[in-house]
Specification:
This protein has two domains: about 325 residues, Outer membrane efflux proteins (OEP) (Up-down Bundle); about 120 residues, no CATH class. It is of the alpha+beta class. Strand 4 and strand 5 form a beta hairpin. Helices cover about 60% and strands about 20% of the residues.
Amino acid sequence: MKTIKLTNAIKKIKGMKSFYSFLSIIQLFSYSIIQLSAQQDTIPISLSQVIYESGVHSVDALVAKNQFRASYWEYRTYKAELLPAVVFDGTLPSYSKSYNQFQNTDGTYTYVSNDFSQMDASISINQNIPWTGGTLSAKTDLQRLDQFGSGAMTQYMLMPAAVTLTQPIFGFNRVKWDQKIEPVKYQEAKTQLVSQLEAVSVTAIAYYFNLLLGEINVKIAAQNYQNTERLYTIAQARRNIGQISENDLMQLKVSCLNAEGYVTEAQSAFKASMFQLRSFLGYGENAVLIPVIPDSLINLQLNYPQVLDLAKQNSVLSQDIRRRMLAASRDVSQAKAARYNISLFLSFGLSGQDNHIPDIFNNLRGNQVVNLGIRIPILDWGKGKGQVKMAESNREVVQSQIEKDKIDFNQNIFLLVENFNNQAKQLAIAGETDRIAQKRYETSVEAFVLGKIDVLNLNDAQTSKDDARRNYIQQMSLLWSYYYQIRSLTLHDFANNRDLFADYDGIVK
């Protein structure tokens, strides 16, 4: 008899308001993508697609590639310094007609008119000597002088070749140290590029799962609102026949209002996540991205010693350590060389002059110049020694920092490997919890309709269901994030067992 009364009361209430309420829910809250805009472009997108496009279109990826281009051209500049530099210097005809002061043999001065034009051209070749730190230069110079007026004439002066050697003795050999450091810096830039692109993937994974979680929250909120509305309708009917207290009815009404508010909050958060991922990938504002839960999961167990060996071989840190140690040793060498700055300058050349260029070679006169320059600090009150000690102390500081960086790096690798290996189990537990919580909620709804449980138990089942679903997505996000963080540190693809690399030539073009 009570069941018949309850059924009749429910039908009566539904006849008055349930149809319109349910229709409103479907139109407004069932799926928020419909609410964004009917004119927008709907784009289904997978996690693998987001990872790929983030490495191509994201601003972070473009910044990493531009930084690599700068390092590439810095390396090319260093390589150019090892090659001969050819320089042409020329002066267009310069014309002068003026009075110049001239001293006569008796000591008096007169002004004479000088009317002439002059041209000159030279080619020089300069070559750094990496082994000694010196510079070798060769130069050819030709000058023409045209004298106008009553004694008009043309003369040429030619220096077919002049060779100059500049060599520091016990000095700092910058080119030699550049040969040690610059290749390491360039290799560091290459590994840094790959590492940064993997870090971009980690960011893309976080944005993707934020959007996926936002979509799930919208669905959860809409479903909860629909269920709460339906249960509130049933609770009203049960209240009419005295099967539920006024307090439980009001509590269910509060739950209904809260559920409506959660729908609005979930929609706002979903739109924010949509905007974040859309901007990151470079999509237009009309694009609506529809994420899906990844079908394939990472089924790997990593070995810490193997991962650590790969990280030491491939990581940016290994190149960074080499560069920092070389730079510290270079500074010590430079400080020591500055204490005794001795340089040798040697120049040899032939030159001659005549009214005709071919005749100059018959009139060449030897012109040998030898200069020896020397500069040795006698008393600097310990300045040079202090600079050396300071450079040596800085090198020791760098060594200590490197040791600490190694320890922190190894610890980070260990924690990431442990977290990744444990995450597969955590994900499996979260998945099973999600299924059980969903089943429990469905059972609780049926029990509430039949009057077997109260509102508190129903709300607890709903909260557990929602939390379990969110936790499953978050655990999946952690699994992918840990994996790509390890890839970023090792520059190795464990799924395909190959080292990671980038299209370096294509990036610099």
